[in-house]
Amino acid sequence: MQRSKIDVWVGLFVLIGAAAILFLALQAANLLNLSLAPTYRVTATFDNVGSLKPKAAVRSAGVLVGRVESIAFDDKTFQARVVLALESRYAFPKDSSFKILTSGLLGEQYIGVEPGGADENLADGDVVTRTQSAVVLENLIGQFLFNKAAEMGGESQ
């Protein structure tokens, strides 16, 4: 009798530990969204989204204000269409700009919102065109090497 009580408690402890590890793994991978706040959807168009992924954070002044809902390619404009789910308690002016930023040097990408000054706020279904695409590290390195090669070629003549 005493042995089976201990086994039940050990089993319960193991299950709680496994659930906690699963919860932390989902949170770290950005796959778990526990926000039940009402949202409104805004679409932003970008020339290059880099490695932005669905469920990535949308931040303004460092505060989480929403998440990336989906990313699709628009074959008419040849741009990426990113649907953002912004929490309804955060209202941004219509002329706000959206940038794809990176947390740290090689960290994950997220969308940063810089509020504008318009009197009207973004509403559900609006399309934002004031965007800045992701800075791709490979393109920067390639441009740097090309400029250095051009400088070296100019010196040898």
Automatic annotation (TrEMBL):
User: From which domain of life does this come?
Assistant: Bacteria
Q: In the record, what terms sit under GO molecular function?
A: phospholipid binding; phospholipid transporter activity
Q: Which residues form the Mce/MlaD domain?
A: 38-116
Q: Which PANTHER family match?
A: INTERMEMBRANE PHOSPHOLIPID TRANSPORT SYSTEM BINDING PROTEIN MLAD, INTERMEMBRANE PHOSPHOLIPID TRANSPORT SYSTEM BINDING PROTEIN MLAD-RELATED
User: What is the protein name given in its UniProt record?
Assistant: Putative phospholipid ABC transporter-binding protein MlaD
* Organism lineage: Bacteria, Pseudomonadati, Pseudomonadota, Betaproteobacteria, Burkholderiales
